[in-house]
Design goal:
It contains six helices and four strands. By secondary structure, the protein is of the alpha+beta class. It has two domains: 41 residues, Arc Repressor Mutant, subunit A; 81 residues, Lrp/AsnC effector binding domain/regulation of amino acid metabolism (RAM) domain (Alpha-Beta Plaits), CATH 3.30.70.920. Strands 2-3-1-4 form a four-stranded antiparallel sheet.
Length: 149
């Protein structure tokens, strides 16, 4: 049975969302508690899946890539699970999100800055989506805020 998330858990996640490299001792100092309490809470949050991953936000422009968000609409009756499993295998697909609304999936990819390569990548991706009804693309120029908690 999952424990309820409390104010302290949210404080931990808020600090980590800003800097995932903070260690237990630093977290304890920032939150005015003990390292052991922080360790226990983080282990529980990870075990229960509340915290899924610690990550970085790269500057794709400096790396020579474009970051593209693609909204995917699929025809009714199409197996979304099968599409998700297929997209998970693509190394260029960095994020797959289920959605409710005009699009059933939002997929984030990285692609070389060359427009012909981007066109090729998007065409390859579209062939992997069985029951594709439509795709809308947005080229992300900058991540100005990325804060989940």
């Amino acid at each position: 049975m999952k424990n309820k998330i409390d104010k302290f858990d949210l404080q931990i996640m808020s600090v980590l969302a800003k800097n995932a490299r903070v260690n237990y001792r630093q977290l304890a100092e920032l939150l005015n508690t003990t390292r052991q309490r922080v360790a226990r809470r983080l282990e529980r949050l990870e075990r229960e899946g509340t915290i899924k991953k610690y990550t970085i936000i790269p500057d794709f422009d400096k790396l020579g890539y474009l970051y593209v968000a693609i909204g995917i609409s699929i025809k009714p009756g199409t197996s979304i699970e099968k599409i998700i499993e297929t997209l998970k295998e693509d190394d260029d697909v960095k994020v797959i999100q289920r959605a409710i609304g005009y699009h059933q999936l939002i997929v984030h990819i990285v692609a070389p800055k060359n427009m012909k390569e981007i066109e090729k990548k998007i065409h390859e991706l579209s062939k992997k989506v069985e029951g594709l009804e439509g795709m809308d693309m947005s080229f992300v120029t900058d991540i100005v805020k990325f804060e989940l908690v």
